[in-house]
Design a protein that fits this description.
The protein is an alpha+beta fold. Helices cover 22% and strands 23% of the residues. It is built from two helices and five strands, in the order αβββαββ. Strands 1-2-3-5-4 form a five-stranded antiparallel beta sheet, with helices on one face. Strand 1 and strand 2 form a beta hairpin. The longest helix has 18 residues. The radius of gyration is 13 Å and the shape is globular. The chain binds guanosine-5'-monophosphate (5GP) and zinc ion. Zinc ion binds next to helix 1.
């Protein structure tokens, strides 16, 4: 989709630090990390949020998250996966993405 920053990142029009890539999924470091490890995992095909995304695509993203956690070495110590969906959740980029947060002891709260 034109004017979508994450579509531009997938196409290489905006630079990013790649962490993982396969046919359907791209993962890269968040530009403003909330923890020592902060990776964004996105489908290459544009969707807005989990409400307009096929369950097959969500499954592929979680398969990628599994691989990334093992490859990057934080699977054992633990991590958090976050998806912000819509305005009240504070979604700022309207290309569906999952945050992986890791690399430190995370707060116990969810909100
Ligand atoms: P949201 O608040 O929509 O769930 O998260 C969007 C995330 O995208 C934020 O954590 C923000 O730092 C990140 N982000 C926004 N623009 C860019 C960019 O151009 N490059 C990278 N690597 N991350 C970005
Ligand atoms: Zn997009």
């Amino acid at each position: 989709m034109e004017d979508c920053i994450f579509c531009k990142i997938v196409k290489g029009k905006i630079p990013s630090t790649k962490v993982y890539e396969d046919e359907n999924v791209y993962a890269f470091k968040d530009i403003n990390p909330a923890a020592p490890i902060h990776v964004l995992v996105i489908p290459k095909e544009h969707t807005t949020n989990i409400l307009d995304t096929k369950s097959e695509t969500i499954a592929k993203i979680f398969e990628a998250i599994n691989k990334i956690a093992k490859k990057e070495g934080f699977a054992k110590e633990g991590f958090r996966v976050i998806n912000n969906c819509g305005e009240n959740a504070g979604q700022t980029v309207m290309h569906m993405h999952f945050h992986i947060i890791a690399g430190k002891k995370l707060g116990e709260g969810i909100v």
